[in-house]
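Attaching the record inline, Q. Sequence:
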Amino acid sequence: MSAATDYYDQTQALLARLRATQLPAIARAAELCAERIARGGLIFLFGAGHSRMMCEEMAPRQGCFVGFYSWAEQAVSQHCATIGMNGLRGPLFLEKIEGYAEQLLSGFKFGPHDAFIVISTSGIRPLIVEMALGAKARGLPVIGVVSVAHCSQSQPTHSSGKKLIDVADLVLDNQCPPGDCVVELPGLAWRTGPTSTVTGAMLINMLRCETAARLLQRGHPPVMLPSHQFTGTPTTHAAEEQLEAYYEGYRRSVAHLFL
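Structure, as predicted:
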């Protein structure tokens, strides 16, 4: 077996386990999201570091719809340079500082029907825990997207002694093993082949689709972002009109945040 097929097979097994175990939690999360969106609320998604990719997967993304607010804070998300300016050291340091999340949260005026999704495979860094605690203190229900296996065996690093799985009202388990990576190679002391991007994106898209279905059941059709690839085709005009409808719907949905 090659390393590539080993990664594929192990990741496929995680996806199968996700389907077998997470459908009830996804249904509950989708019902919460649909209920909040139908009442004019926003569902915030926050993730630091690589987890912010799951926020971007939800919105703005083709097939997304008004009601989800992706929060990718640049100070803890942009570290492609690794070292030097905008490198990895700064964001990892900020994730450890208690009080930082509260400063970020203070920049918004949350509404009574908003909710929060906090995404972190480890679920233990102070920024993540404090973001969940701060959301709950403001009356927002919190959904945690986390590796239960990793989070459960890790020591808390927030002074409260809590981890994301302790704070979240509802947990979606991305099924990743401790450390995220699954491929062991002779001669390498550390595993490679991280899986949280694949399983996390699957969870986010399952939640998106189920939320859309439940909004339709409520008689509240979601305002969709159409595919940009329809430009230059017979459906161009309809796609452009829908894009404008999405922009306007999104503008209205976020208006309460800054009043």
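The radius of gyration is 19 Å. The chain is about 45% helix and 10% strand.

More tomorrow.
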